[in-house]
C-alpha cells in the first residue's frame, strides 16, 4: 500500500513529457505594421499569456469544470469518491470526476481510454504538474490546450472565431459561452445550435454565481443577453497565396525552417509584401487580358520588387493561383530579348569604347559556329546605333556586340546580377538559354538599373519572431555594384524610350516607366512572351506562356500582351498611391539625347535666280525633318569623286554659289546624324541650269 502511494505521488515524472507542454501554435504571416496576411497551421491555436486572459473568463472555466481548483493538489478526492460510487453502481467507468489539472494531464500525456491504469497515470501526472507549476500556469496551459469546436484550439483562437475579438475583450457572458463549449463543442455550437448554446451558457453563469465569481444581478442580466457572436466568413480569397507560398519556401531554404515547423511553431513572420499592390496584381492577373494560345488558357506570372530595398512586394504565380499550385514566379523560362540590357548592352557600356551612340552592324551575317541570327522583322539597316538597336530590339546588332565584348565578359555580369548560366554561345544575347531565369530573378536584375547599378537578391521575409517575442532571423541585405551610375542611367533612358517609342510602346501608362519586351520563338510559333521593366519605385517582370512546351503549345500573339497588362497593373497602383512622374537624373550626370531619325529626302528641288550680269544664284530645297538636330550635307556631282560644298543644321534649304549662264551643275543632299556620325540615304539628284 505504502509503495503504491509513493509511486503515485512521485512517479509523475515518468509520465510527464515536458516537451508536450510546448503546444502547437499557428504561425502568422503579417506586415511590419501588423496587418495579418495569412495563418499557417495544422491546428488553429494561438497561444495567449495567462495575464491576457480576464479573471471573469478564468472564473467561468473554473466554475463549470473544477470549483475546488485553487484548493486541491491536482486531485479532488471528494470528486473521485463520487465518481467511484457511480462507477460501482453502473459496473463500468461512467463518471470522470477529473480536475482541470487531470484533464490537462490526460490531454497532454495520455490517451482517452477509460481504464484504471490510464486513470492512475493521470493522477500521477496531475500531482507532478501541481508540484512543478503554479495554479495560474496550469490554468493557462489548460485554456490554451482545449478544443472549442470548428477547428479552434485554445481560448484565444476560440474568442476570435466565435466573437471576432481577442480573449482580453470578452464580456462575462461571452466567457461563459466559451467555458460551456469544451464538454461538447459540436452540440453547443452557437452557430449551429444557438438555443442549446444559450442554455449551456446560462448554466455556466449559474455556476459562476454559486462559485462567487459574479453577483445574482449580473447573472440574471447576462442570462438575458443575446449570444453576441460574430461569425467571420471563411475567406475564399486567394490573392495572397502565391506570396505566402514563397515565404514558406524562403523560410525553408534560407532559415532551414520546415513547413511542419511553421505550422506548429507559433512564429510571427514579418514580410515585405505590400498588400495593396498584391491585391491589385492578383486581381489583374485573374481578370486581365492575356495573350491567346493554341491549346487553351495561357498562364502567367508577375513579380514586383522595391527599388530601395530589393524586397519582393508582390508576386502572383498564376492566373488563379491557390496554395500548392505550380508557382510560376519560381519557374525558369528563357528570357528572350529581355536579357539584352543585362547580358549585352549594360556590360558593353561599362567599356570605354562603347557609348549609347556607338555604331553596330545591322546586316545578315553568320558568326562563329555557324550561328546566323536574324532580326525579328526581317529588316536590316546596314549600320545602327546601340541605342536604336536596343529600342527596336534588333537581334543581329545584339549578337554582334556580344561577339565583340566576349561571352565570358558578359557572363561575369550575369553572375553578379544573380543570373548565372552554363551556356557559352552567342545565343545568350537573344535569351536562347538551356535553362533560363525566373520572373523573380528578372525583376531583381532589372532593379540594378533603377538602383544606380547596385544589385541584390530579392526576399520576402523581413524577420521571424518566435512565440516568446525574440527575433530569431532577420534579413541581412548585401548589395553589389554591378554597373556604374552612368551606365545604369544610360540604360534607364534608353529603356524609357523603348516604352515610349519602341517595342514596349503598347498599352498606356502616363508616368515614368522603362522596360524591355521579349518574345521567345519556337518551331511552331512563339513559346512565351515577357515584359520586364521598372518605375522609379519598383522593378517588375510579367511572363505569359504555357507550362508545357513543344508541338501544340504556342502563344498566338506578341509581347504587347504582357506589356499592356503590366501597364494596367501599374496604373491601378498609381490610382491608389501616386507613382513618380519622371526619373530623376543622378547628380553629376546628364540626360541622354534621344536618337535621331534621319529623314528620307525624296523630293529635293532647285531653282535659279538672277544674281548679276550673266550670273545666277541657285537654291536647293528639301523636306526637312522636324528634328532640328539633323545636319544636311550638300554634295556636287563631279567626275571622279563628288565634292561636299556645304552643310546646314535643321534647315530645309541651301544657297549655291553664283553660276554662269551656260553652267549646268547637279547636286544632292545627304542627312547626317551628329550623334552616330552616320549619313543617311542621299536625296534625288537636282540639276541647276538656265532654261531659255
From TrEMBL:
InterPro entries: Beta-lactam/transpept-like, Glyco_trans_51, Glycosyltr_51/Transpeptidase, Lysozyme-like_dom_sf, PBP_transglycosylase, PCN-bd_Tpept. Residues 300-569 form the Penicillin-binding protein transpeptidase domain. GO terms for cellular component: outer membrane-bounded periplasmic space. It catalyses: Preferential cleavage: (Ac)2-L-Lys-D-Ala-|-D-Ala. Also transpeptidation of peptidyl-alanyl moieties that are N-acyl substituents of D-alanine; [GlcNAc-(1->4)-Mur2Ac(oyl-L-Ala-gamma-D-Glu-L-Lys-D-Ala-D-Ala)](n)-di-trans,octa-cis-undecaprenyl diphosphate + beta-D-GlcNAc-(1->4)-Mur2Ac(oyl-L-Ala-gamma-D-Glu-L-Lys-D-Ala-D-Ala)-di-trans,octa-cis-undecaprenyl diphosphate = [GlcNAc-(1->4)-Mur2Ac(oyl-L-Ala-gamma-D-Glu-L-Lys-D-Ala-D-Ala)](n+1)-di-trans,octa-cis-undecaprenyl diphosphate + di-trans,octa-cis-undecaprenyl diphosphate + H(+). Residues 34-209 form the Glycosyl transferase family domain. The keyword Transcription does not apply. Transmembrane segments: none annotated. Keywords: Carboxypeptidase, Cell membrane, Cell shape, Cell wall biogenesis/degradation, Glycosyltransferase, Hydrolase, Membrane, Multifunctional enzyme, Peptidoglycan synthesis, Protease, Transferase, Transmembrane, Transmembrane helix. Signal peptide: none annotated. Pfam families: Transgly (PF00912), Transpeptidase (PF00905). GO terms for molecular function: penicillin binding; peptidoglycan glycosyltransferase activity; serine-type D-Ala-D-Ala carboxypeptidase activity. GO terms for biological process: cell wall organization; peptidoglycan biosynthetic process; proteolysis; regulation of cell shape. In the N-terminal section; belongs to the glycosyltransferase 51 family. NCBIfam families: PBP_1a_fam. This is PBP1A family penicillin-binding protein.
Amino acid at each position: 500500500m505504502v509503495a503504491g502511494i509513493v509511486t503515485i505521488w512521485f512517479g509523475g515524472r515518468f509520465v510527464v513529457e515536458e516537451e508536450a507542454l510546448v503546444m502547437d501554435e499557428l504561425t502568422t504571416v503579417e506586415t511590419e505594421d501588423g496587418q495579418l496576411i495569412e495563418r499557417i497551421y495544422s491546428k488553429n491555436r494561438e497561444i495567449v499569456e495567462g495575464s491576457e486572459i480576464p479573471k471573469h473568463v478564468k472564473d467561468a472555466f473554473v466554475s463549470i469544470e473544477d470549483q475546488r481548483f485553487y484548493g486541491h493538489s491536482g486531485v479532488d478526492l471528494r470528486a473521485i469518491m463520487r465518481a467511484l460510487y457511480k462507477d460501482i453502481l453502473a459496473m463500468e467507468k461512467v463518471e470522470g470526476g477529473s480536475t482541470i489539472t487531470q484533464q490537462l494531464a490526460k490531454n497532454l500525456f495520455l490517451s482517452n481510454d477509460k481504464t484504471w491504469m490510464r486513470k492512475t497515470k493521470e493522477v500521477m501526472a496531475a500531482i507532478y504538474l501541481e508540484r512543478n507549476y503554479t495554479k495560474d500556469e496550469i490554468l493557462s496551459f489548460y485554456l490554451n490546450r482545449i478544443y472549442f469546436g470548428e477547428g479552434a484550439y485554445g481560448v484565444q483562437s476560440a474568442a476570435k472565431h466565435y466573437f471576432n475579438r481577442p480573449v482580453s475583450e470578452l464580456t462575462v457572458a461571452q466567457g461563459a459561452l466559451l467555458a460551456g463549449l469544451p464538454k461538447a463543442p459540436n452540440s453547443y455550437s452557437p452557430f449551429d445550435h444557438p438555443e442549446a448554446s444559450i442554455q449551456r451558457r446560462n448554466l455556466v453563469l449559474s455556476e459562476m454565481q454559486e462559485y462567487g465569481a459574479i453577483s445574482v444581478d449580473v447573472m440574471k442580466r447576462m442570462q438575458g443577453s443575446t449570444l453576441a457572436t460574430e461569425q467571420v466568413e471563411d475567406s475564399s480569397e486567394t490573392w495572397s497565396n502565391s506570396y505566402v507560398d514563397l515565404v514558406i519556401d524562403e523560410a525553408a531554404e534560407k532559415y532551414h525552417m520546415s513547413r511542419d515547423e511553421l505550422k506548429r511553431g507559433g512564429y510571427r513572420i514579418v514580410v515585405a509584401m505590400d498588400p495593396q499592390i498584391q491585391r491589385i496584381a492578383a486581381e489583374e492577373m485573374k481578370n486581365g487580358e492575356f495573350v491567346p494560345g493554341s491549346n487553351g488558357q495561357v498562364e502567367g506570372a508577375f513579380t514586383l520588387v522595391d527599388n530601395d530595398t530589393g524586397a519582393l512586394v508582390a508576386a502572383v504565380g498564376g492566373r488563379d493561383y491557390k496554395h500548392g499550385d505550380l508557382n510560376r514566379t519560381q519557374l525558369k523560362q528563357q528570357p528572350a530579348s529581355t536579357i539584352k540590357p543585362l547580358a549585352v548592352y549594360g556590360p558593353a557600356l561599362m567599356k570605354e569604347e562603347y557609348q549609347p551612340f556607338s555604331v553596330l552592324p545591322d546586316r545578315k551575317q553568320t558568326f562563329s559556329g555557324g550561328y546566323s541570327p536574324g532580326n525579328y522583322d526581317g529588316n536590316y539597316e546596314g549600320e545602327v546605333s546601340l541605342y536604336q538597336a536596343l529600342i527596336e530590339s534588333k537581334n543581329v546588332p545584339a549578337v554582334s556586340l556580344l561577339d565583340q565584348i566576349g561571352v565570358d565578359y558578359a557572363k561575369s555580369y550575369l553572375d553578379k546580377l544573380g543570373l548565372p548560366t552554363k551556356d557559352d554561345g552567342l545565343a545568350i544575347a537573344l535569351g536562347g538559354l538551356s535553362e533560363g531565369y525566373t520572373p523573380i530573378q528578372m525583376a531583381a536584375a532589372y532593379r540594378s538599373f533603377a538602383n544606380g547599378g547596385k544589385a541584390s537578391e530579392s526576399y520576402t521575409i523581413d524577420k521571424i519572431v518566435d512565440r516568446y517575442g525574440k527575433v530569431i532571423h532577420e534579413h541581412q541585405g548585401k548589395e553589389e555594384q554591378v554597373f556604374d551610375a552612368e551606365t545604369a542611367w544610360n540604360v534607364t533612358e534608353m529603356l524609357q524610350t523603348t516604352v515610349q517609342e519602341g517595342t514596349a510602346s503598347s498599352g498606356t501608362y502616363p508616368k515614368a516607366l522603362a522596360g524591355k519586351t521579349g518574345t521567345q520563338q519556337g518551331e511552331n510559333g512563339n513559346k512565351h512572351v515577357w515584359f520586364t521593366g521598372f518605375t522609379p519605385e519598383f522593378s517588375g517582370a510579367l511572363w505569359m506562356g504555357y507550362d508545357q512546351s513543344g508541338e501544340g503549345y504556342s502563344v498566338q500573339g506578341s509581347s504587347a500582351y504582357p506589356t499592356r497588362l503590366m501597364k494596367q497593373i501599374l496604373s491601378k497602383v498609381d490610382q491608389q498611391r501616386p507613382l513618380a512622374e519622371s526619373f530623376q537624373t543622378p547628380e553629376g550626370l546628364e540626360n541622354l539625347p534621344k536618337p535621331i531619325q534621319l529623314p528620307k529626302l525624296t523630293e529635293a528641288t532647285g531653282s535659279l535666280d538672277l544674281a548679276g550680269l550673266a550670273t545666277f544664284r541657285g537654291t536647293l530645297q528639301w523636306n526637312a525633318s522636324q528634328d532640328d538636330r539633323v545636319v544636311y550635307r550638300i554634295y556636287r556631282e563631279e567626275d571622279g569623286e563628288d565634292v561636299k560644298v556645304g552643310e546646314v543644321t535643321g534647315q530645309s534649304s541651301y544657297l549655291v554659289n553664283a553660276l554662269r549662264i551656260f553652267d549646268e551643275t547637279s547636286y544632292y543632299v545627304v542627312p547626317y546624324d551628329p550623334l552616330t556620325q552616320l549619313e543617311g540615304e542621299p536625296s534625288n539628284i537636282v540639276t541647276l541650269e538656265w532654261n531659255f
